[in-house]
Amino acid sequence: xxxxxxxxxxxxxxxxxxxxxxxxxxxxxxxxxxxxxxxxxxxxxxxxxxxxxxxxxxxxxxxxxxxxxxxxxxxxxxxxxxxxxxxxxxxxxxxxxxxxxxxxxxxxxxxxxxxxxxxxxxxxxxxxxxxxxxxxxxxxxxxxxxxxxxxxxxxxxxxxxxxxxxxxxxxxxxxxxxxxxxxxxxxxxxxxxxxxxxxxxxxxxxxxxxxxxxxxxxxxxxxxxxxxxxxxxxxxxxxxxxxxxxxxxxxxxxxxxxxx
Length: 260
Known about the structure:
Blueprint: H1 3-19, E1 21-23, H2 24-31, H3 35-47, E2 51-54, E3 57-60, H4 69-73, H5 77-89, E4 96-99, H6 103-111, E5 119-122, H7 125-131, E6 138-140, H8 156-163, E7 167-172, E8 176-177, E9 182-185, H9 188-199, E10 201-208, E11 219-223, E12 229-232, H10 241-247, E13 251-253, H11 254-259
Parallel strand pairs: 4-5, 4-7, 5-6, 7-10, 10-12, 12-13
Antiparallel strand pairs: 1-3, 2-3, 8-9, 9-11
């Protein structure tokens, strides 16, 4: 594949991952090429099954789309509460923390209701509203457009926002964990935001339930082994055993802890 085509395809993938979909005409205008050139690029991108054409648009394939937030928030409530209790137990009164988007991060916010005088830097509006019920807390949010129905902020402005702060803890989730330990998201902006939080915190804490192991999302982030602590509800399937062994004492299974 020619270098110009490779660059175009990379840009198309980035735009579609950020926006969820875009018309062929808009892509042609954006990249300064003909619609026929864009259609040939899309032939290559659709061949691997990550994208699909829909009525003159290019979109992520259905199995690469994220589940609606309210549906995610209502699943595995017992597991997420157990994860959240362990994570909240790591964070003392008066701490400064980053808190990511996602339903498990929201569960952590709810579990922090007994904490006082927290400084919470987050792009998760639902988590911010939950933590605002304790008036001694300080809540810092980015500006920009609120993404609905997820009730969060993403984009390059959010990455810059997290870059302006330092925190003692970064608590974040992920869309999926590959067999090699790579963390994945549905948007590159989500990857960059999580990475900035992790890099700017003294201690990073990944909160995930078992279903994230083996789940695929198109945008790749850091490896799970780069995270300081991993809190999961239950051990994943057998193929992930070498990865769990590599994490050693850095991974905690919250439901097992509850039974001790």
